[in-house]
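# nightly structure sweep
# worker-07 picked up a monomer target from the shared queue
# config: single-sequence mode, recycle default, output format = structure tokens
# input follows
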Amino acid sequence: MGNLRTAVFAWLLARANGGQFVVRLEDTDRDPERYRPEFIADIEESLRFLGLEPDEWWVTGGPYGPYVQSERLALYQETARRLVAGASAYRCFCTAERLAQMRQTQQERGLPPGYDRRCRRLSPGEAAQRADAGEAHTVRLAVPLEGRTACSDAVYGDISFENRTVDDQVLLKSSGWPTYHLAVVVDDHEMAITHVIRGEDWMPSTPKQVLLYQALGWEQPVWAHVPLILGPDRKKLAKRHGATQFVEMAREGYLPEAILNFLVLLGWSAGDENREVFSRAEILERFGLRGISRNPAIFDYEKLRWMNGEYIRSCPTDRLAELCLPRLQGAGLVGRPPSEAEVELVRQVAPLITDRMKLLAEAPALAEMFFRDPEGPDDRARRKWLSAPGAARIVQEALSALPGGGAMSIGEAEAMVNRIAASMGIDRAPVIHTLRAASTGRTVGPGLYEILSVLGPARLRRRLARAMEWISADSAPPA
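# output follows
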């Protein structure tokens, strides 16, 4: 979700300024924990789900392709050679064992971690000879030993770093593959990237990349580091807080417009503190880098669920039914494929369950009463209403009052309840609650008149007759 938030900011900035939203696949880190082919499909699905279709990316291509870093290795290798030739980088022949020993010694002595620049002291001639002889080596950035490296950030303003605190970063691995720091600078320049938006945790990398831009004589992009996203306990967002991956959010039934609205407010303000629900058009009209905060953003799951509920309730009926249908099919409430009658029933039911629905995943539980006859009343329905004096008469009166046709309007349902209450000389409330318990087995749900109208006389007659059996069983003396 953190990556998606950054993508949302980048998409908004591009759209608000008539620019291009560019997405590339940075796949030079081949660690199986961080790179799997299925992750690529997740990226594509998440961007399409949110309506953030890139202008240029590996799917459709573009004028600066390829947009996959593993297909651009020759470009990085040539840039590394150029940096070495200009003394802005150097070859490092230290083995993995030697580097591990160095880190252990630093740790034991309480020294800050970082490369000790041993190979930086090699003469260019000796380094070239060893490389030509086939000795394995990396290429490291030659960070100035004194002074500061400065840049301007659209969120944080002017920032600078003491060079002595910046490590001589590996730019090119011995395998010939680049690290992030080299590849991202080369690609941003070659792809004419004007603005780089990324998480605040990448800020320590900025001086290394600024030095690369300077060494190569390239113009820097506008940097914009956005605040980190924290969990409700103000610690880094993690699994312990709840779902953090887009695929999990989609599975739970969050709407794309709700996720977009929620994500953009994680670290950005529209300048209207009293509003939290904005349309995409309103966000585009107001978005700018000046609205991005420097303070960490809190991922409030309750707020996200509330916001999703707001968007669910504002859905047009046809779209809402379309969103609920696969969930109801998954629960076995609707056939695959659904019949025409089932599709129409879903259209009738979907708007009735939104008041209590915050996630689409909740639709089957809320809608079940319309698709399946209850096996029995829940405890509250039984104790509070079906065991009450007069319950049997209310149900019997309803059975007698049901119209003989195949449908009943909301108005007819209300008139029926009024007639029952009047004939018994009681308020409508016990009639309403008793008929809800008898027809659904529950004490909560949509309005009774809507329930009676959707169920219709035929199903109501069957359910009320079954409710009379429940009432008789409860009132029978023990054997």
